[in-house]
Amino acid sequence: MYDGRVVMRQMSVVCCVVMSLATLNAQTQTAGEQLPGRGLNQHPFLYVGEWDTRHPEAQSMFLVRDGKVVWEYSIPLRTASGGAQEFDDVTMLPNGNIVYACMSGAGIITPEKKILWEFKCPPGTETHSCQPIGQDSVLMVLNGNPPKVLIINTVTGKTLKEIVVSTASTNTHGQFRHVRMTGNGTIMVGLFAEKKVVELTLDGKEIWSVDAKSPWSALRLHNGNTLISGDGEGYTREVNMKGETVWEFTRADAPFTIGNTQTANRLANGNTVICNWIAGNPRTEEWPGTVQAFEVTPAKKVVWELSSWENPDLGPCTYVQLLDEPGVSGTMDQQR
Length: 336
Description:
Layout: H1 8-27, E1 45-48, E2 59-65, E3 68-75, E4 89-92, E5 98-101, E6 105-109, E7 115-120, E8 130-133, E9 137-142, E10 148-153, E11 159-164, E12 179-181, E13 187-191, E14 196-200, E15 206-211, E16 217-220, E17 226-229, E18 236-239, E19 245-249, E20 260-266, E21 272-277, E22 293-296, E23 302-306, E24 319-322
Antiparallel strand pairs: 1-2, 1-24, 2-3, 4-5, 5-6, 6-7, 8-9, 9-10, 10-11, 12-13, 13-14, 14-15, 16-17, 17-18, 18-19, 20-21, 21-22, 22-23
């Protein structure tokens, strides 16, 4: 993230702030109000969030089990050279190790907080996505000129594949965020400048696309549809292969303030968990009480709201990995 949150983040901030500031206090959950679901006890989960400016000393990832934070790991908001860093992506592997992306690089950390593998972004580049594939490799994005998707063997450190992604954006930060490999070995990429999601082969050939404003992330589902998170546009949308919207949750559907919908996951029961990043609002005093993540049914009923800003303060929410969902840890399997 550049100083001042240039270009794409500024666009997200404007969209979020203009929409939300007038209604934030009215929609924020009041102290003591009973929220849907069981709070921190709803799921065991791994949690990360971007750009918690309240804590420049500690950008954190949290592991929550049985309603309590049982493990956390932090890095400073600034690197030694002054560059920005933040946790954007995280996945716990079956052996308990955690794969992460933190803008300035990516890595694998053990429960004992030993770094097993680390990638440091070259000057002028950044990464916001790192997905484990197979037993010893990761798929990661490298924003830059040119922008790339890399497949790296984390044991040898060897780059197995380098795929240049075609985009009109020369603004490193404004190119893309989460990139995911599907169960078929293709790659889903959301392009900010082009306002669309594309599906690429490992040779970089585009084989499918759909128009989508501000596509922060896109996942291929088991039914062949694609689940898109619209970031500053505030939507979560499921589209079929024809590009038709078959399900969508927008700001108008929510009984609370929606900031930036950065990521979403489809659960085995058909529900969708959506991460609601609120840090586009620069008034940090208005963050507490807002909903960080929530679960909705196909009928758009909200059955879980997570709002934990004190004891523990989880901070803004970018991505959540639910650890009670089958078949998603350490794989590139499609979601339901």
